[in-house]
Automatic annotation (TrEMBL):
This is histidine kinase. Keywords: Kinase, Membrane, Phosphoprotein, Transferase, Two-component regulatory system. Residues 86-139, 213-265 form the PAC domain. It comes from Mucilaginibacter lappiensis. Residues 140-211 form the PAS domain.
Length: 488
């Protein structure tokens, strides 16, 4: 092929490249920036037709808003230096709508073999999608930031390798410092109340294992005053499950805690005051029952036994409230002893007529199983399971008690044929004051503290409490007690 033909072929393929390129391209020649070639994308940007080819850029883009654009290209020609423009907004008519679109621009000088600028290559890439996505993200972040600010929550990011903490200014305020003061890991952990340090350590250990950090603790401000904070966090790991960072939020809960403490103190005081008159009421009623029995007065025997039953119910409730306030102040203690669990069941079953007069209560005594636990409190948990089984299942139905020795634990269960529980309620019933409120429980009274107390008692024994149930098909409440360890 002759040299001239070769040049024509090279030109042709360069033009094809420009025309077919997925980005907007134009080549402008000589210092008057004559449009040598322009593909359909750049014609759309300029809002022109192909008849502009061969005309100078300044002539084609002569509207006042386009002058700065032409000037930038002229500057590139004169200086010989490349120019980049990012996310330039341009209004375009597309599909009958006039909207704003965004483009990244490159104006590249084209040089001859003597390094003289002979033209400028203009390339524009549309970045509208990226810009809009980023703007939406920024808006969402801003909304989140405003929401966080409004709720007084501080957020933070802790590097678990070198303990660096990046936090919002609210964290400094929560710890009693000026908002613009940056706090170190040492300052944050140093502020934890000495009595709560082990709670924080335990929550931290748990977070490394489960990825979730949750802790309510006291902190001491520089002026000696005490505040309560609630911190939640999530641990992020590397590919080898090595903990890298923890992201989280902290909120000041001092007011809520003070109210809780006041409420708790009131419950403790009221229950304590009620205990003494109730004890003497119970003693007198028992005396009257035995007198009525001696006199053989059926009416009095019946009425007084019913009163005694109600007094017992009231006593259980009051002792429950007392235990709850002890748990809240961390004062519920175990009084452990070694005993055979079957003996305990036999004692419970002995009161069968009293605790479940209208149900078929069954328990098969098995091999001797010695455990080390607080007998009275374990009896309280089993008693609570049984009274719930009675309350939430129909008269005449079966309640089955069972003890099973597993490899490391003892499994103690109470199964009924009652209303059962929805899956969503199965975790929550162990929370304080939680009660299932629906058609099936309407008219059944209670405070929602029995299972909470049971869960705390089992937790103190380092055991596990749970329920297996299907709605409408009964429930099996059970707990596991470690066979080896002494809870103390
Ligand atoms: P209370 O029975 O006084 O409300 P509990 O803490 O003992 O408090 O129980 C919490 C809730 O768990 C109850 O309100 C009830 O909805 C549910 N529950 C407990 N035991 C059973 C059971 N055996 N069957 C069905 N629901 C139960």
């Amino acid at each position: 092929m002759k040299k001239k033909d070769q040049n024509i072929a090279v030109r042709q393929s360069a033009d094809d490249l420009i025309i077919q390129a997925p980005v907007a391209i134009s080549f402008l020649k000589s210092n008057s920036l004559v449009i040598e070639s322009a593909n359909s994308h750049i014609l759309e940007l300029w809002e022109k037709q192909a008849d502009i080819i061969g005309r100078p850029l300044a002539f084609v883009l002569s509207a006042p808003g386009q002058l700065h654009y032409v000037k930038s290209v002229q500057d590139v020609y004169k200086s010989g230096h490349i120019h980049f423009g990012y996310e330039t907004p341009i209004r375009l008519n597309r599909n009958g709508h006039n909207n704003l679109f965004y483009f990244d621009f490159v104006y590249k000088p084209v040089k001859d073999s003597s390094n003289n600028t002979v033209g400028v290559m203009v390339v524009a890439t549309e970045v509208t999608k990226q810009v809009v996505a980023r703007q939406l993200l920024e808006e969402a972040e801003e909304r989140l930031r405003l929401a966080i600010e409004a709720t007084g929550i501080a957020n933070w990011d802790m590097d678990l390798l070198n303990n660096d903490v990046i936090a919002s200014s609210r964290l400094s305020e929560i710890f009693g410092y000026d908002a613009d003061e940056t706090l170190t890991y040492q300052q944050l952990f140093g502020a934890v109340h000495p009595d709560d340090k082990c709670v924080v350590d335990m929550a931290f250990e748990e977070a490394i294992k489960s990825s979730i950090y949750l802790c309510e603790t006291r902190i001491v401000w520089a002026d000696g005053s005490i505040r309560w904070i609630r911190t939640t966090g999530k641990v992020l790991y590397d590919d080898h499950h090595k903990p890298l960072r923890m992201l989280g939020t902290t909120i000041d809960i001092t007011k809520r805690k003070q109210e809780e403490i006041m409420k708790n103190d009131f419950i403790a005081m009221a229950s304590h005051e009620l205990k003494t008159p109730l004890t003497s009421l119970k003693a007198y009623t028992q005396l009257l029952v035995s007198k009525a029995k001696k006199a053989g007065d059926e009416f009095f025997i019946n009425a007084l036994e019913k009163s005694e039953n109600q007094i017992n119910k009231m006593a259980r409730l009051i002792y429950g409230f007392l235990d709850m306030s002890k748990i809240e102040s961390g004062k519920l203690q175990l009084n452990t002893q070694a005993f055979d669990i079957n003996e305990l069941f036999d004692e419970i079953i002995a009161d069968k007529l009293l605790i479940a007069p209208d149900h078929v209560l069954s328990f098969k005594s098995g091999q001797t199983i010695q455990i080390n636990a607080d007998k009275e409190k374990i009896a309280q948990v089993i008693g609570n399971f049984i009274s719930n089984a009675v309350k939430y299942s129909p008269k005449g139905s079966a309640i089955t008690l069972a003890v099973k020795k597993l490899s490391e634990n003892l499994r103690i269960s109470v199964k009924d044929e009652g209303i059962g529980l929805k899956v969503r309620d199965q975790q929550s019933v162990f929370q304080r004051f939680y009660r299932v409120e629906d058609e099936s429980t309407r008219g059944l009274s209670g405070f929602g503290i029995g299972l909470y107390l049971s869960a705390e008692i089992i937790r103190l024994h380092h055991g596990k409490i749970a329920v297996e149930s299907e709605e409408g098909k009964g429930a099996e409440f059970y707990f596991l007690l470690p066979l080896q360890t002494d809870p103390n």
